[in-house]
Design a protein that fits this description.
The complex is a heterodimer of chains A (480) and B (704).
Chain A (H helix, E strand, L loop, with lengths): L41 E5 L10 H14 L3 E7 L1 H5 L17 E5 L15 H5 L1 H15 L9 H14 L4 E5 L5 H12 L3 E6 L4 E2 L4 E2 L6 H12 L3 E3 L2 H10 L7 E3 L23 E5 L6 H17 L7 E5 L12 H8 L5 E3 L8 H6 L3 E5 L10 H7 L4 E4 L5 H6 L5 E4 L4 H17 L2 H12 L3 H23 L1
Parallel strand pairs in A: 1-2, 1-4, 2-3, 4-5, 5-8, 8-9, 10-11, 10-13, 11-12, 13-14, 14-15
Antiparallel strand pairs in A: 6-7
Chain B lengths: L1 E7 L5 H13 L2 E7 L3 H7 L7 E4 L13 H9 L3 H9 L2 E4 L5 H10 L4 E4 L1 H12 L14 H13 L1 H9 L2 H5 L1 H12 L5 H17 L3 H13 L4 H17 L7 H17 L3 H15 L2 H4 L6 H4 L1 H10 L1 H7 L17 E7 L7 H8 L4 E7 L4 H7 L2 H8 L4 H17 L2 E5 L3 H6 L8 E6 L19 E4 L2 H10 L34 E7 L6 H14 L4 E8 L6 H19 L3 E5 L4 H4 L5 E4 L8 H8 L3 E5 L12 H4 L5 E2 L2 H11 L3 H19 L1 H13 L3
Parallel strand pairs in B: 1-2, 1-4, 2-3, 4-5, 6-7, 6-8, 8-9, 9-10, 11-12, 11-14, 12-13, 14-15, 15-16
Helix pairs in contact in B: 1-6, 3-5, 10-11, 10-12, 11-12, 12-13, 13-14, 14-15, 15-22, 19-22, 26-31, 29-32, 32-33
Classes of the chains: A alpha/beta (480), B alpha/beta (704).
C-alpha cells in the first residue's frame, strides 16, 4: 500500500471549480516551495489534450497537473484552443470540472489543418485532390520537426514556453507526448534558459506500440531528436514495463531515469454494484472506448457474439452496447466499423456514440459484463483496462493473447482470459462471461474491484509526481 | 425549413446516411441526396431512408477529363446537372460525403455563397444545429462566381485549346470507324519520327480509341508505339499500359508476353544500377500482368496451366528475379518437439479461416498442444506487411532493411512463442514471414489451389520453410514444377494431406425421386463452370425428361469481374427456359447443405480447376453417385488431376461421357443404390476428418 500518497483537492468526485487563465494572480499555498525567491516552484506543462479535450489522455494530464498543485507547485498548462478539438475528438466540459482552479492554462491558436471540415476554408488545390494536398501538407509539416501532422507547431510552441518563462520563470518543464513536437519546445527552453525538463512519453516514440517494432532508427532525424532530448531529461515516464524495457535497452545510460507510470483509472468512474444481472430481461454487455480497431477485428468480435448468442441460452436475448468515439474529422461516424455495427443490430448490438466523462459510471452501471476490445500486443496496456477492472464486472478479452492488458488482468477473478482474435474463441469467452455475470457472488465482485485498487489514478500519479519532484531536487542540488 | 444537399462520388455509406438523415430530420432539416451511382442501385440501397429526394448524378467522364484528378472529373461530369444546381441553389448546407465530392461541393459553394459547405456527416449535423441556433436563417441562392475563380476557369479553358484541337481530330465518330483508326496508326509506324513525338502521338491515339470504346485498338496503338522505341523504360511502360488496358476490360491481353519481357529486362537493368526500389516495382508490374486473375482465375483456361514451364521461363531467366528467389537459409534447423510441455502451435491465416475450423477445434482440445490463432488482417501492422510484394522483393535484393526490421518486430514474438507455425494459404503471409530467419521454429505452409496461379509461391524463401503441405497430388506436381526452390537440396518436405472436413453428418436417407436429380454444390465462381452441368442435363433430358439439375449455393456476383459478368449473363440466358420448365432448380445459398443433398442422386464436379472439391466429397458421402469432369487445367498433365484425387471410374472427359455414366448407373434403382453406397464408403474412409485428422497429427507431431 502506498502510504505517501498526497491527495489532491481536485481528485475525481470533488466539487467542480472554475478555470484560471495564465498571468492572473496565483492563489498559492502558504508553504514556500523550492522555486525562485522562495515562491512556489513553477511547472510549465506541455499537455496538448488537456481537458476539456475529449481524449483518453486528458485524465492523466488532469491528474498530473492536480498532483503538482497538491505538492506545492504552480502549474501552467500549454494546450490548444477548445475549438481545435471540435475537429478531432470533440470536447467534454465535464472533464474540466475536476481541474484544480489554480492550474493556469494557455490555449494556443493551433489547429489540425488536415482535419478541417469547413470546405470554405479549403484552397482550390485542396478541394480538387484532398489526398494529394494532405500528403504535401505532411511533407511541409515535417520540414520543421520530423513529425507528420504536428511538426509545424514547433515555432508557436517554442515561442509559448519562452514567453511563459519570461513572464514567470519556470523551474521545471514536463512535456507529455503526443505530439512529439513538444520535445522541441522543451529542448529550446533547456538550451536558452537551462530549465530542466522531464518527458512523459506514455506510449513511447521510437517503439511502435501497436505493431510492436522499432518505429525509427537512432540515426534517423526522429532518432537524433529522441537521443538528444532524452539525453538531458531528468526523467522519462512510460505506461508499462515492455515500453520501459525498450527504452532502457535503447539508451542504457538512461536506464535509471526511465519510470513506469501506469494510466490507472479515476475512482469516480467506478459504478459500484448497482445492478443485478437479469437474464430474463436480457444481459447487457458493454464496450466503452474509441472505436480504433480495424473492421476485421470488429468483425471477429461481432461474429463471436453472434455465435455465442445462438449457442448459449443465457445470451439469447442479450444486448451488446458499443459506446465511444468512432472516427474523426470528415469521416466521423462514416466508416466500415459503423456499417458493421449497424448490420449487427439484429443480433442485439447497438452503437450509442460517445459518453461524457461525468456519465461514465452511469454507463457502466447499466452493464452486466465488459468487452475489452484492444489493438496491439505486448507494448499496449490502454487506459480502459483499469477502468474496466474497477467496475468489478466480468471482462471478455478481445485482444491478442500476448498483450500487456493480460498482465494487468492476471488474477482478476471475473476475467475470461485472453484467447486471441478467433471468433470461436471469443464466442467461448462471451459464454463464460455470461455465466460469470449470473453466477458470481458479491464476494467475487468485491474481489474483482479490489484487484483494481492499486491502479487508482490518484495513487499512481501522486507517487509519480512525488518521485519527479524528488528527482528535480536532486538534480537542482547537483547543479548548485 | 433547412435544406441539406449531400453529394457523393464513389461511395454509398448507407448506415451513415441513414443515421445522419434521421438526426437531421429530428433537427427539422430536409435532406437531398445526389450520388454518382446507377439509379437502380442507389434507390435500392437507400430504400427506407428518410430523404426528401434521391438523384443519380452523371457517371460518364468527359473525354478531356479522363486524366484529371478524380475530384475534378466528378465536377466536370456533374457541372451541367440541372437537379444538382436546383438543389444547390436552395441549400442551406452543402455536404461532401467523400473525398471525390469535395471539389464539386467547393464549386457549388462558390455559387451559393451563403450556404455552409462541409465535409462529412458529423459536420453536416453540426452545421444544421448551428443554423437552428441562429435567430434567422438566410435565404439561399446563387450569386455570380468570384472574379478570381472566373479568371482561373477562363485561363484553364485557353490552356486546353491545343489538346482540344487534337481531340477534335480524333473524335469518337472518327475513331469508331475502322478507317479512321487505321489512318491514325500510320504516323505510329512512320520511320524517323523523334521518340518523344512518337510516344505522345501513340498515347493520344490510344486515348482516342479508348474513348471510342475500342480498347483492343488502343492497346494495339500503345504496343505498336513500343515496338518502335528503343529506350527500355519507355518501351516497358507502353507495353505495360497496353496489357493493363485490356486486362482492365476483362480481356486476356495478347501483349502480355512482350510486356513481361520488356519489364523483366528493365528490372534487370535497374537492379544492375542498384536502384532496387524501382527494380522491385518493375518486377511487381511484370508479375501483375503474368499472374493477372483474368488470365488464370476468372476464366475457363490459363496459360500457366497450359504450359507451366514456358509460362515461367522468363522469370527464371531474369537476373532480378533470380536474386529475389535466392534461398537465404536459416541458422538453425527446426527444434525437435518439446517433451516437457505441450507443443505450442500457432495457426495463422489472412482473412480466410474457412478450412481451419476442424483443425483449430482438434488441437484446442488436445492435451499435448497449446494452440493460438492469428488472423493477420485483425492487426493493422501485420495486415500492412503481409501482402507487401514490392518491399519483399526489394528487401531480397538488399534494398529495404526497414521492411525486414518491421517483419522482425511484428513476427518475432510469435516465432519466439511457437514451436510450430502453420500458415494456411500460400500467399502473402508466408512470403512475409520468410523475410526473417524463423530461428528454431518449425514453419509449415499449406497451399490449396488458386495460390499456384499467383506470384506468391515465387516470393516465399522456401529454405526457411520445413513443410509445404498440399491438399492434392496434382497441385504438388504443378507447384514443384513451377518453383525450382521446391526441388533443390534446401527444399521443404511436400506432404499431401487432404482438407479437413466432417463428412459423417452427410449420409442421410434419399428422397424417392433423388436418382433423377443431378446436384452441383457451389456455383459462385466461373471456374465451377455450371454450364458444363447444363450440357450434361440437356443430353440426359434427350433420353429421359425426369432428369433435373439442382444448383446449391449463391450465384456469381456480376460485379466481381468483367469475366464473371460475361459468364453469368450467358448462364442466365441458358438457364431461363430450363428453370421455367422445372428442369433446373436454383436453391441458392444455404446453411443446410446436407439437408439439400437428400434430393440429389448424382453429384457433379464440373469445375475447370479444383484441388479436391469438397462439395463433391460431401455429395458422395451423402449417398449420391459422383460424376467428375477431368478438370481441364490439369487433364493430361504428368502430375495428374481429378484422376489422382478420385477413383478413375468416377472421372469423365466430356458431358457426353458424363451423361452415359449416369444413364448406365441409373439403369435400375438398385444399381444406382449400390454404386452410391460404394462411393460413399470410399469417401468416408478416405476424406472424413476421423481419418484425415490422424494424418494431421502425423504432420504436426511426426518425425521431422
Amino acid at each position: 500500500m502506498l502510504t505517501s500518497t498526497i491527495m489532491s483537492a481536485f481528485s475525481p468526485s470533488r466539487a467542480p471549480q472554475p478555470d484560471r487563465a495564465p498571468g492572473s494572480d496565483a492563489p498559492s499555498s502558504a508553504d514556500p516551495g523550492p522555486g525562485h525567491d522562495g515562491r512556489r516552484p513553477h511547472l510549465i506543462y506541455l499537455a496538448i489534450g488537456f481537458p476539456p479535450a475529449a481524449k483518453s489522455c486528458a485524465y492523466r494530464m488532469r491528474e498530473t497537473a492536480n498532483q503538482f498543485i497538491a505538492q506545492g507547485w504552480d502549474v501552467t498548462v500549454v494546450t490548444i484552443e477548445d475549438e481545435s478539438w471540435e475537429l478531432e475528438s470533440g470536447i467534454d466540459l465535464t472533464l474540466s470540472d475536476q481541474v484544480d482552479p489554480r492550474v493556469a492554462v494557455l490555449k494556443l491558436p493551433l489547429r489540425r489543418e488536415d482535419l478541417e471540415t469547413d470546405i470554405r476554408r479549403y484552397s482550390e488545390e485542396r478541394a480538387v485532390s484532398p489526398g494529394r494536398w494532405a500528403k504535401k501538407l505532411r511533407e511541409r509539416q515535417q520540414e520543421t520537426f520530423p513529425e507528420a501532422t504536428f511538426g509545424d507547431w514547433r515555432g508557436p510552441l517554442e515561442d509559448a514556453v519562452l514567453g511563459l518563462h519570461k513572464e514567470r520563470p519556470a523551474d521545471l518543464l514536463l512535456a507529455t507526448c503526443v505530439p512529439y513536437v513538444n520535445l522541441a519546445a522543451a529542448w529550446r527552453l533547456w538550451e536558452e534558459a537551462r530549465v530542466p525538463y522531464a518527458v512523459d512519453f506514455r506510449d513511447g516514440w521510437s517503439i511502435d506500440v501497436v505493431d510492436g517494432h522499432e518505429a525509427f532508427r537512432p540515426e534517423s532525424e526522429e532518432g537524433r531528436w529522441e537521443t538528444r532530448v532524452l539525453g538531458s531529461a531528468i526523467s522519462l515516464w512510460v505506461v508499462n514495463d515492455p515500453i520501459a524495457e525498450h527504452y532502457r535497452a535503447r539508451y542504457p545510460v538512461l536506464a535509471d531515469r526511465v519510470h513506469v507510470v501506469r494510466n490507472g483509472y479515476d475512482a469516480d468512474s467506478s459504478p459500484g454494484r448497482s445492478r443485478r444481472p437479469d437474464p430474463d430481461s436480457g444481459l447487457v454487455f458493454g464496450y466503452l472506448g474509441t472505436v480504433n480497431f480495424s473492421p476485421e477485428h470488429l468483425k471477429a468480435v461481432l461474429e463471436g457474439w453472434r455465435i455465442a448468442r445462438t449457442r448459449e441460452p443465457l445470451l439469447a436475448n442479450a444486448r451488446f452496447e458499443v459506446r465511444g468515439h468512432n472516427g474523426h474529422g470528415a469521416r466521423r461516424g462514416a466508416n466500415l466499423q459503423a456499417d458493421l455495427l449497424r448490420d449487427a443490430e439484429p443480433d442485439g448490438v447497438t452503437y450509442g456514440g460517445p459518453v461524457a466523462k461525468a456519465e461514465v459510471a452511469d454507463a457502466y452501471a447499466r452493464w452486466d459484463a465488459m468487452v475489452l476490445i484492444l489493438i496491439g500486443g505486448r507494448y499496449v496496456t490502454s487506459g480502459k483496462v483499469y477502468e474496466y477492472m474497477a467496475t468489478g464486472l466480468p471482462i471478455v478479452s478481445a485482444h491478442a493473447i500476448a498483450h500487456d492488458a493480460s498482465n494487468v488482468l492476471k488474477g482478476h477473478p471475473l476475467w475470461t482470459g485472453a484467447r486471441g482474435l478467433d471468433a470461436k474463441a471469443i464466442a467461448d469467452a462471451f459464454v463464460d462471461a455470461a455465466h460469470l455475470a449470473v453466477e458470481s457472488t458479491d464476494a467475487q465482485h468485491a474481489a474483482a474491484m479490489a484487484h483494481a485498487d492499486r491502479f487508482t489514478r490518484e495513487i499512481i500519479m501522486s507517487e509519480a509526481v512525488k518521485n519527479l519532484v524528488d528527482q528535480f531536487q536532486v538534480e537542482k542540488g547537483r547543479a548548485q | 425549413m433547412i435544406n441539406v444537399l449531400f453529394v457523393s462520388s464513389n461511395t454509398l455509406p448507407v448506415s451513415a446516411i441513414a443515421e445522419t438523415a434521421q438526426r437531421l430530420d429530428a433537427e427539422g432539416a430536409r435532406v437531398f441526396y445526389g450520388a454518382c451511382t446507377a439509379e437502380p442501385k442507389l434507390k435500392a440501397a437507400l430504400d427506407g431512408v428518410e430523404l426528401a429526394q434521391i438523384h443519380a448524378l452523371p457517371r460518364a467522364n468527359l473525354r478531356r477529363a479522363v486524366d484529371l484528378p478524380f475530384g475534378e472529373r466528378v465536377w466536370t461530369r456533374c457541372r451541367k446537372d440541372l437537379w444538382l444546381h436546383a438543389r444547390a441553389r436552395e441549400a442551406h448546407v452543402l455536404v461532401a460525403v467523400d473525398e471525390g465530392a469535395v471539389y464539386t461541393v467547393w464549386q457549388l459553394a462558390q455559387r451559393n455563397r451563403k450556404a455552409k459547405a462541409v465535409n462529412g456527416f458529423a459536420p453536416a449535423v453540426s452545421a444544421v444545429r448551428e443554423l437552428n441556433g441562429q435567430d434567422a436563417v438566410h435565404t439561399p441562392g446563387y450569386s455570380l462566381l468570384p472574379p478570381s475563380l472566373m479568371a482561373r476557369e477562363f485561363g484553364r479553358a485557353v490552356k486546353r485549346l491545343p489538346d482540344a484541337t487534337a481531340r477534335a481530330l480524333t473524335a469518337r465518330p472518327i475513331m469508331r470507324r475502322d478507317l479512321g483508326a487505321k489512318l491514325w496508326r500510320l504516323p505510329l509506324r512512320a520511320p524517323g519520327v523523334p521518340a518523344g513525338l512518337r510516344v505522345a502521338t501513340g498515347r493520344r491515339v490510344a486515348e482516342a480509341m479508348k474513348w471510342a470504346n475500342k480498347h483492343t485498338g488502343a492497346a494495339y496503338a500503345l504496343a505498336l508505339t513500343a515496338s518502335k522505341i528503343s529506350d527500355s523504360k519507355t518501351k516497358a511502360e507502353l507495353l505495360y499500359d497496353a496489357a493493363s488496358l485490356e486486362y482492365g476490360r476483362g480481356i486476356v491481353s495478347r501483349h502480355t508476353d512482350k510486356a513481361v519481357q520488356a519489364l523483366l529486362a528493365h528490372a534487370d537493368e535497374l537492379q544492375a544500377e542498384e536502384d532496387y526500389l524501382n527494380a522491385a516495382g518493375t518486377l511487381q508490374r511484370a508479375m501483375s500482368l503474368s499472374f493477372h486473375r483474368v488470365a488464370h482465375i476468372d476464366g475457363l483456361s490459363s496459360p500457366l496451366a497450359d504450359a507451366p514451364m514456358k509460362f515461367i521461363k522468363p522469370y527464371h531467366a531474369s537476373k532480378a528475379m533470380q536474386t529475389v528467389m535466392t534461398p537465404r537459409g536459416r541458422l538453425r534447423p527446426a527444434a525437435p518437439r518439446p517433451t516437457d510441455r505441450p507443443l505450442r502451435l500457432l495457426i495463422t491465416t489472412s482473412a480466410n479461416a474457412n478450412f481451419l475450423h476442424e483443425i483449430l477445434d482438434r488441437y484446442r482440445d488436445h492435451p499435448d498442444v497449446e494452440v493460438r490463432f492469428l488472423d493477420m488482417v485483425t492487426q493493422a501492422g501485420l495486415k500492412r506487411v503481409s501482402w507487401a510484394d514490392r518491399p519483399i522483393m526489394q528487401e531480397r535484393m538488399g534494398g529495404d532493411d526497414e521492411y525486414a526490421d518491421q517483419v522482425e518486430g511484428l513476427m518475432r514474438p510469435y516465432l519466439d512463442w511457437a514451436d510450430t507455425v502453420f500458415v494456411d494459404w500460400c500467399v502473402g503471409p508466408p512470403a512475409m514471414i520468410t523475410t526473417v530467419d524463423p530461428g528454431d521454429t518449425r514453419i509449415i505452409v499449406r497451399l490449396h489451389s488458386y495460390e499456384a496461379f499467383t506470384r506468391w509461391p515465387h516470393l516465399v524463401d522456401w529454405s526457411r520453410v520445413d513443410d509445404l503441405v498440399f491438399v492434392a497430388e496434382h497441385l504438388r506436381g504443378l507447384t514443384t514444377e513451377l518453383v525450382p526452390a521446391l526441388r533443390g537440396p534446401k527444399a521443404p518436405r511436400t506432404p499431401v494431406v487432404f482438407n479437413a472436413t466432417e463428412l459423417s453428418s452427410f449420409p442421410r436417407e434419399k428422397q424417392a425421386d433423388a436418382r433423377f436429380n443431378l446436384g452441383l454444390v457451389g456455383v459462385g465462381q466461373v471456374v465451377k463452370d455450371p454450364l458444363w452441368a447444363v450440357e450434361v442435363l440437356r443430353l440426359l433430358r434427350e433420353e429421359d425428361e425426369r432428369y433435373r439439375l439442382l444448383m446449391i449455393g449463391g450465384d456469381m456476383d456480376r460485379d466481381f469481374s468483367r469475366a464473371t459478368k460475361k459468364y453469368r449473363n450467358k448462364m442466365e440466358k441458358e438457364l431461363e427456359p430450363l428453370v421455367e420448365a422445372g428442369a433446373v432448380l436454383r436453391l441458392g445459398a444455404t446453411d443446410d447443405v446436407a439437408g439439400k443433398l437428400t434430393d440429389v442422386g448424382f453429384i457433379l464436379s464440373t469445375s475447370v480447376r479444383e484441388s479436391a472439391h469438397l462439395g463433391l466429397m460431401e455429395g458422395t458421402a451423402s449417398g449420391a453417385v459422383p460424376v467428375v469432369r477431368d478438370w481441364p487445367y490439369f487433364a493430361g498433365s504428368t502430375y495428374g488431376g481429378a484422376r489422382t484425387v478420385f477413383p478413375d471410374g468416377w472421372v469423365v472427359d466430356t458431358p457426353k461421357a458424363a451423361a452415359e455414366r449416369i444413364l448406365r448407373i441409373n439403369i435400375t434403382e438398385e444399381n444406382w443404390r449400390d454404386c452410391a453406397k460404394l462411393a460413399a464408403e470410399h469417401a468416408l474412409s478416405t476424406w472424413d476428418w476421423s481419418k484425415v485428422g490422424k494424418d494431421f497429427d502425423e504432420l504436426i507431431f511426426g518425425e521431422r
